[in-house]
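Section 5.1 Outputs to date
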Amino acid sequence: MRKCPRIPASWRLTWERRTKVSTAATETKTALSISGLHAWYGESHILHGVDLKVHQGEVVTLLGRNGAGRTTTLKSILGLVGSRKGSIKVNGIEAIGLPTHQIAHIGIGYCPEERGIFSSLTAEENLLLPPEVQAGGMTIGEIYAMFPNLEERRHSQGSRLSGGEQQMLAMARILRTGAHLLLLDEITEGLAPVIVQTLGRVIGQLKDRGFTIVLVEQNFRFAAPIADRHYVMEHGRIAETFSAAELEAKMDMLHEYLGV
């Protein structure tokens, strides 16, 4: 069985800061509240009563093995599954009965695992393509300051971008829309360590700017130091939830749920 990595001592200070932020977050408005969520693809029942909350300004991870229901949870928030029932409130607005385009206009930005870059368009054309869903989106200049690689490659076709550049573009693209609740699915998969570090830095900057982030991630070493709280999924349910401060004490449990 693969063991979860030992907790690096260098992460402790990060967790202490996250604990203070997480405690403060409980006193703020809830950005996302999911209750009793069930979801199906055709006749396949994937989610079995998911309950979770994310407060404004938090970074929250969904951990679990492949097939646990993490990506389906993100897609269910946007109505991208066959059918669903339960309650999904985004900034207090019930979204369970809304079509996807209306849900997006509540202020959600979704970065799918497959990235969805248009290969025939340049990087900048891809960046400019999504419509504004709310006022207050980041400007092109702000995005290029956050992702300098994209500015250098702005005239390159999507098909000529590296995997890391495509991932940065997929993230950058939703920042223009005005969305402040970001759903990020496996953004580090298959990327070089230097790109992973860049994405971690960007998530920190977005959190400082007040964004709320739900992160589905297999790379535990990436997710652990940047998240305020963690949810562990298994068999379409939330199996465990704990704060960043509790992470070290939960390592045996994580090994049980995440080890393969």
